[in-house]
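Hi V.,

You were right to ask for the full record rather than a summary. Here it is.
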Amino acid sequence: MLTRILGGTAALALFTGVITGLSAGTAKADYTLHIVHINDLHSRIEPINKYDSTCNAEDAAAGACFGGYARVATKINELREELDGQNLLVLDAGDQYQGSLMYTTHKGDVEIEMMEKVGFDVMAVGNHEFDDGPEGLLKLVEGVSFPVISGNIDVSRSNVLAGKVVNHVVLDVGGEKVAIISALATDTSETSSPGDAVIFQDEIESLKADVAALEAEGVNKIIALNHVGVKKDMAIAGAVAGLDAVVGGHSHTLFSNTEDGAMAYPTMVGGVPVVQAYAYSKYVGHLVLTFDDEGNVTAAEGDTILLDASVAEDPEIVARVAELAGPIEEMKNRVVAEAADVISGDRTTCRAEECSMGNLIAEAMLDRVKDQGVEIALQNGGGIRSSIDAGEVTMGEVLSVLPFQNTLSTFEVSGEVLLAALENGVSQYEDGAGRFLQVAGMIYAFDPSQPVGERISDVMVGDEPLDLAKDYKVVSNNYVRGGGDGFAMFRDAANAYDFGPDLADVTAEYMAQNIPYTPMTDGRIVKK
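Predicted structure:
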């Protein structure tokens, strides 16, 4: 029997239910807890290729696909069977929403159905759960049978979410109370659409308060299930006394003990293990914690598990996914262009330097509206979600790169405002933030070692230096124009029109006009 005690801002609610894999028993000197976790699945309901886009039939036949919910379900069920009778929690650190045609077509219904098939114990709210406003999160919260939590957001003023998102949950796992607390990145109001009624509190201060309240109730096993990114998770692990582990998301960071370039799984901050499992359904993490009788972690081990072709796909889910994909299959498989080489939309590149996918998108935007006198195109790196392989390019691949249904926005701003926008773009460079700007029609240099506000230099528009007093016509996407990713300086832009064609369509059409499209970088963004 599992008892869930959900902590809210107004009252505590009590739920009971049975979850496979949670064993009853008495507290022992050595208490072992298995945490199986995913994060940032981003609507990758179907398997993905090595570029994190939806896998095609050719790659599937070659055994070159990864992940997809059918593999996620298989692996988690295998772990449940393997750990039968032991103490097990299955956690999701947020961002089920947004990233494929499954989401843009079905608007959360598929993610909810698949999460229910897997049977998570707790999910953290991710920033993209707000992409369709508070109503989108409400749909998820009311659609699943497990708690969806976030501790540092106050939804009491929201006529949509008030009373729906709880602060934390306390689970009875094998006779021991295990608390799951959570924090969501405080810049979610810039990266998504929570609305003004959702109030964010500092992540560390919120988690400290939750730990103190739980310890006062006698709970001595506390896990932070966060959606704040690895850098903030490390800071939280070092600053919040009483935490026993941090299971994170948001930054799509790979922790692994076998893959080159990954962070160690777990990475210890003091005595607190921190883990994450990349993104897009490619991995499942398995953290094993051992506690002494006072609730102190005495050992932490585990690793991420790659969901490659060696992991069988759950046949029931495969059949259901095929059924759900039916209405979008024709559009997804329609060949729209050809690429002469890989077009890199890698997250770590497009949020830190000039990337070939950023150049493609920005050039496509500028080409579409250049007859209107537009000189500059700006694309936020965070809006680029995958790469495209060489060869035939399908509309499904383009939509995997640009899944947000953003439209072209044209507007006018001064050179001074443009400089402020470029500064904003590199203001969170060290965090790999999505506000990093890919451009067309201009070049710029930046020096991340300089203070914020003094990082940008050598800005050229066409063949001329940026004139701070001159007004420029700009094209971007409606998300950036509306102030997303910190670009509040664009909200009051002159002559703004936010209802142009879909950015994915513009990009596909530009590639079709340049067959085969040859990806390129040309030094338009220089890091000093």
